[in-house]
Specification:
The chain has 8 helices and 7 strands; from the N terminus they run αααβαβαβαβαβββα. By secondary structure, it is an alpha/beta fold. A hairpin with a 2-residue loop joins β6 and β7. Pfam families: ThiF. Keywords: Nucleotidyltransferase, Transferase. One of its GO terms (molecular function) is tRNA threonylcarbamoyladenosine dehydratase.
Amino acid sequence: MEMKKELEMKKELEAERRIPSREEFKKVMDERFSPEIHARLSSGRIGIAGLGGLGSNIAVMLARSGIGCLHLVDFDYVDLSNLNRQAYRVEHLGRAKTEALKGELMQINPYLEIKTDMVKITAENAVDIFSEDQIVCEAFDVPENKAMLVNALLGHRPDVAVIAGSGMAGYGSGNSIQTRRICKNLYLCGDGITDAGEGTGLMSGRVSICAGHQANMAVRLLLGENEI
């Protein structure tokens, strides 16, 4: 009798762990958004430059939104200082951010197409790295690197949209973080002011709000909404 109960419990656990089929995922997303919207999102391809507080959270939000392909680019490894605001866990310490984040995203949607590049992005290679992506979310820490990526992509790829982040440090009002359209293919999310410093470090709340603005703008662009 005890053996039978153990077998039944084991079967129940295995059933709970069963990975839903691709068709089941599609059905849920179709019902949640509509077949038309899900079809447009699932055909989207978005690059994410930098997988820190902005980039890792952007990736999670886009994976949950049903984006078909995410291109993750970063050369760094997960360390303890990342855990206060980035989408990593203790078990990821020491691992490449590209692979750690890919594993997390596959737990959200095992049918998501993910491309990873563990490389440092420069003015010389940026265009080639993101050559297949419709939209690129800039998620660097250093202002000079942000400007480099924007200038490299918009200077050589008039067809790509860049969504950048600027100003999300500290614990000030989240309402000051906004999305602005700077020019035809450049959108800027953040308050445009706050930098990380003593007493105004990067904290999860405001970083996540800014990441949400970037992810939401990417979704809107895929759905044909270009204006703010």
